[in-house]
Write a structure and sequence with these properties.
about 375 residues; mainly alpha; 2 strands; about 70% helix; globular
Length: about 375
Amino acid sequence: MNQKRELIGIQFLRGFCALGVVIGHAAGMLAKPKYGGLEILGGMLEIGTLGVDIFFIISGFIIAVVVLNGPDLAPRMSIGAFLRRRFIRIVPMMWLAIVSYALLQRVFAREGIDLGAYLRAIFLVPYSVVKPDIIWTLRQELIFYIVFALCFFWPRWGRWVLVLWLVSPIAFLLSLGSIWHTTAYIDTFWSVLCSTVNLEFGMGLALGILWVRHAPVPSLRVPVHPFWLLAVASCAIVGASWALGLASQTLPSVLFIGSVGTLVVGLAARADCPDGWLTALGRLLGDASYSIYLFHLHVLAGFLAIRMKLGVFNNAPVALVVTVVAAVAVSVAIHLWIERPLTQRLRAKFAGRAARGPLPVAA
């Protein structure tokens, strides 16, 4: 069975999560006075930023499927190869996004640069605020990679690291006086290490482990194209979170989004996606989702500032649609012209070094 084809639905889901974040941030920025104060649906669309929670589930699932092998969950690669692949996939484009955002802020917004926040973002320091704000999710990703490596590349005692990491959010929330608190916006070392989103990584990882142990997993034909099914499912999860009044990174929020989102991720992985333009579009959005996530704030800030100066798109829904389309289009272009060739070049370069191996001692 072609594993790559099975996971096309995951690319759909990645794309929808990225779109949700763009819509949420665009709606929030449009509502600000300096961008016209155009509030839409009472701020409901801002809940789209919860798409990052599904990203965490996907990340846990994908890491397990890509790295682990067989019923005994033995790593199919060395820890060096694992860390190298994660570095190439994430860090170069992240650095480009951070530096370019700082330059845009300094040159066009004429604002002072919080150097400490940008340095913490560049090195993913698990403490205090980072700039741009979206880098907080990559900081959580780094912690997950470290815990995963300790768990599966080391002796079996490393499994206890994963268990402790998964229960740590409950202990941290109890230290705040209630399990109903949020770990967001605190930005201490312990709030980052013991974030409630750990549970979402864990749920995705559990799904991935089940997938690996029971491979090959049969594909699933659904009565409608998976693109539309997963789009509706993504909107339903976010909409239900808003209807239930769930705040970001609270225990109820991550338990609800994590459990329902894990089911949707499992459906996306199994969905049989027929060839055609809709599948091609979904794959493109999924492939470009990292660039969309990293660079959409650049485009939103610039586009909305230009919109205010020109006095155009004053209708709130029109302004939102045009702004989101612009942000996605520019980000997809960055993926096609920068991210993809850069990643391919780095992979080829490091693969060549690995193939050559270390130089002889005499050399």
